Amino acid sequence: MLAGDLYAANDAELQADLAATERWLARFNAALSEPIATRRVILAERLAAIGRGVIVRPPFYCDYGHNIRLGDDVFINYNCVFLDVVGIVIGDRTQIGPGVHIYAADHPRDPDVRRRGLEFGRPVKIGADVWIGGSAVILPGVSIADRAMIGASSVVTKDVAVGMTVAGNPARPLPT
To answer: Which helix (H) or strand (E) holds 30?
Structure first.
């Protein structure tokens, strides 16, 4: 799975890991009124990396958690969804608006393969100092370079270059 190969989503070990993540998310999301420091402790139990100064506002949702790496001073607003069947890496000082979805999970294009319950993942990498507007969707395999801006409600289907601003569905570069 982590190599991007096809895997069976209903695998017993994966299902047990998903159930453990659901229990962890329930604890984290119930901590909305707790101090940020308390929420950071809970995040550190499951995420692969959590830099200093990270703020994730509950509710937050993910598949596994342990494939998510957050750099220093990352801010993730309410109601975000990260499908982390493979790595999702977010660089320092990146700000993510409410309701943003980041999908590293993907599905075969061949319906016969999908019917067999097979899936795969493609990692998502987001650089430093990126701003992602509310309700944006980042699709599997996308890289967003440093200092880029993603407009609210955009669907990012392709890589975004350093300092570029994109918006729309599909997201396209805006004139400077």
So the answer is: helix 12-30
Asked whether the whole model's pTM tops 0.70, one would answer yes
Catalytic residue selected from 101, 107, 122, 125 = 107
The residue-averaged pLDDT of 11-17 equals: 96
76 contacts: CB under 8 Å, gap ≥ 6: 54, 55, 56, 57, 60, 70, 96, 100
pLDDT at 113: 94
DSSP, residue by residue, 61-82: EES-STTEEE-TT-EE-TTEEE
The pair of structure tokens assigned to 44 is: 């550190």
**CATH annotation of 7-173:** 2.160.10.10
Burial class (CB in 10 A: 0-12, 13-18, 19+), 12: exposed
Q: What would the pLDDT profile of 32-91 be if each residue is shown by its tens digit?
A: 999 999 999 999 999 999 999 999 999 999 999 999 999 999 999 999 999 999 999 999
66 is catalytic: no
Strands in the chain per DSSP E:
7-8, 49-50, 55-56, 60-62, 68-70, 75-76, 80-83, 88-90, 95-96, 101-103, 105-106, 118-121, 124-126, 131-132, 137-138, 143-144, 149-150, 155-156, 165-167, 172-173
